[in-house]
Amino acid sequence: MMWTTLLLWLGALLSVSYAQLSETEGTGGEEEAVELFTTPRAKMAAATSDFGYNLFRALAGRDPKANVFLAPISISAVLTQLSMGASPDRSERWLYRALRYHTLQDPQLHDTLRDLLASLRAPGKGISIAARIYLARRLRLKPEYFGVVEKQYGVRPKALMGGAKDVNEINDWVKQQTGGKVDRFMSKPLGRNSGVVPLGAAYFKGKWITRFSQSGLMEDFQLDGEVPARIPMMQQDNYPVKMGVDPDLGCTIAQIQMQDDVSMFVFLPDDVTQNMTLVEESLTAEFVQDLSMTLHPVHVALTLPVLKFSYSTDLLPLLSDLGECLHLSPSLFILLSSVFTSLTSSLSISPGLAEFLADTDLTKITAQTVKLGSLNHKVVMEMAPEGTQYASSSQVHAPLSYRVDRPFLFLVRDEASGALLFIGRVVNPRKLRI
């Protein structure tokens, strides 16, 4: 069976340029951009996803040889809570631009996000989210802010007591919000100058629709320039997926269905390599939505790692470098470059968060000058063989094989809304922490 080749289009990002390209090719007609996200919830999901992809790129670029993981919806949630305490003329505007909210034109923005978060917390989706603002008690805090955030998002910002009590309070709350799965969120007290401390955490263990019959077999996971790692794998023949090959990205993409309208996209490079920059740069909400509509249903002999890991980091140092970028898929870039020779693979625009961090005007929280102390983030994820049904026993002639036995990138997406739930890059499973 021949692979199906995908040409990944992001025409909506450059609809004018795309129309000009069509005219250059002599079509004589005007291309009309297709609006992929039509409801307020879908547009909000796309905004939080694009913010997540930007943040993931910044995180992945910090150490290209490291395993990195992110649950961006938790960070969108907590920074949106923070925006409710910002001055509307400056800090709120900058936060909205970084969070991609300026594209929404949604007067009910907070209601839309609240409803989206409620839908994602449905038990069957497998994700637990914790997002909260902590504030130094030394600040002269405005009680109105506490009430507004609690009424809108059901979580009340918390004043810090200082010292080890803060660590215990935060760890206990995160553990409770994630069903006991995200433990020891913080290991040391906050700094003395910590004024505002947003935090986001998440746990994910979704269940496949089709279970894996074989699990725990120790197999080689190929590493770039190193001896292979022996790790447990799960395997199932005749497994239903959607799949395609992108020669420009140099990878094979598979979409694997999970319960409650959630799916996992796996980007498997053709070669054993730590360098997944092309794939990372291609990720946008529109790109992944296009994939979900373009990949082809096939049955494969599917082999995936059995993984259970935790990952934590302070995202605050990344925020000043986080700008708004329009990312073009390599295939579209190649097509357009013949017409626009000066076009680059990403177009940088004003970095809203850098401006916000330089002038953190949180006048609805306190009249005092205040800075963010940190933006701690911790995720825990499990990839296990459980599923709700068995693969079909009917034989498929010359079945395809999809073996995720080398460095790969993956993302977990809520198909109902299009929201990005989880994204990660696995370079070396030996270095994953439980």
From TrEMBL:
<dbReference type="GO" id="GO:0016525">
    <property type="term" value="P:negative regulation of angiogenesis"/>
</dbReference>
<dbReference type="InterPro" id="IPR042178">
    <property type="entry name" value="Serpin_sf_1"/>
</dbReference>
<dbReference type="GO" id="GO:0005615">
    <property type="term" value="C:extracellular space"/>
</dbReference>
<dbReference type="InterPro" id="IPR042185">
    <property type="entry name" value="Serpin_sf_2"/>
</dbReference>
<dbReference type="InterPro" id="IPR023796">
    <property type="entry name" value="Serpin_dom"/>
</dbReference>
<feature type="signal peptide">
    <location>
        <begin position="1"/>
        <end position="19"/>
    </location>
</feature>
<dbReference type="InterPro" id="IPR023795">
    <property type="entry name" value="Serpin_CS"/>
</dbReference>
<dbReference type="Pfam" id="PF00079">
    <property type="entry name" value="Serpin"/>
</dbReference>
<protein>
    <recommendedName>
        <fullName>Serpin domain-containing protein</fullName>
    </recommendedName>
</protein>
<dbReference type="InterPro" id="IPR000215">
    <property type="entry name" value="Serpin_fam"/>
</dbReference>
<dbReference type="GO" id="GO:0004867">
    <property type="term" value="F:serine-type endopeptidase inhibitor activity"/>
</dbReference>
<comment type="similarity">
    <text>Belongs to the serpin family.</text>
</comment>
<feature type="domain" description="Serpin">
    <location>
        <begin position="53"/>
        <end position="429"/>
    </location>
</feature>
<keyword id="KW-0732">Signal</keyword>
<dbReference type="InterPro" id="IPR036186">
    <property type="entry name" value="Serpin_sf"/>
</dbReference>
